[in-house]
Amino acid sequence: MSKQFTVWHHDKIGSTNDEARRMAAEEAPHGTVVHADEQTAGRGRLAHTWYSPPGNLYVSVLLRTGQPASRCTELAFLAALAVADTVETLLPRQIRAMLKWPNDVLVNGAKIAGILLEQVDEATIMGVGLNVLEAPSNTAYKTTTVVANGGIASVDGARDILLERIEAHLAVWQEGGFAPIREQWLERSYPIGAAIRATSGGQAVAGLFAGVDLDGALLLDTPRGRERILAGDVVATAG
Q1: Has residue 158 got a pLDDT over 50?
Q2: Which of 2, 21, 22, 177 would suit a FRET pair with 191, their CA atoms being 20 to 30 Å apart?
Q3: pLDDT tens, position by position, 107-150
Q4: What is the mean pLDDT of residues 212-216?
Q5: Is the CATH number of domain 6-187 3.30.930.10?
Q6: What is the CA radius of gyration of the chain?
Q7: Spatial CA neighbour of 87 closest among 122, 115, 117
Q8: Predicted confidence band of residue 29 (pLDDT cuts 50, 70, 90)
Q9: Portions of the chain given CATH number 2.30.30.100
Q10: Which residues have a Cβ under 8 Å from the Cβ of 32 and sit 6 or more positions away?
Q11: Other Cβ atoms closer than 10 A to 81
């Protein structure tokens, strides 16, 4: 594991993101990592709870990139690439991870990880939950785990791979900006022209996937023309 990161490990914690936020407010340095074996109050995007039993990876990374807070959303795509790299390292070689806007990582159409980014002044908290052994069964979407797909991994091993990949993609982002991250993300997402359905502001929007804009917005070609979706979820393929 890179010396850039310092890991603070907890057997059980409410939320790794909350602890990282607290540490950020106390001026913890770039590369501070909060890792927990179990979360009692884990959460995802849009105030969703995150199933957090022992056996999975729950980690939050405190980043002080020196970039404006307005670029925080770009780091969600960077995190997705790092998680996808980690998943593919742990799984049999022929299995590929797919990325779904804005921050889901899927294997064979099932969600295997989630990402939550939060801003604390000039610091960004990058929270990652990766299903290694356990996955929730009472969700509206399919879920899976590393082990269910034939992978063999220890949680600590998965964490170390993830941190290495975050460091690698962070270096690319710092040097080249969002463009190379966006290009790599698009290579692992839906093909351009795929029929998808997204939710935005509580409304379903169906159209053809037109990529991701320069600021990370989802682009959909609809009967009304091209639409930019800044916040929401891709919920299904259209049809």
Answers
A1: yes
A2: 177
A3: 999 999 999 999 998 999 999 999 999 988 777 789 999 999 99
A4: 94
A5: yes
A6: 17
A7: 115
A8: very high
A9: 195-237
A10: 5, 6, 8, 20, 23, 24, 61, 62
A11: 23
Element (H, E) at 208: strand 203-212
The edge-to-edge listing of strands for the beta sheet with 32-36 is 6-10, 32-36, 57-63, 123-130, 110-120, 104-107, 97-100
CA separation for the pair 134, 90 (Å, rounded): 15
**ω before 102 within 30° of 0 (cis)?**
yes
CATH of region 195-237: 2.30.30.100
Q: 55-106, pLDDT tens digit by residue? A: 999 999 999 999 988 888 899 999 999 999 999 999 998 999 999 998 899 9
DSSP state of 226: E
Question: 49 in helix, strand or coil?
Answer: strand
* Cα distance between residue 48 and residue 158, in whole Å: 24
| Tokens representing residue 95 in the block | 């299995």
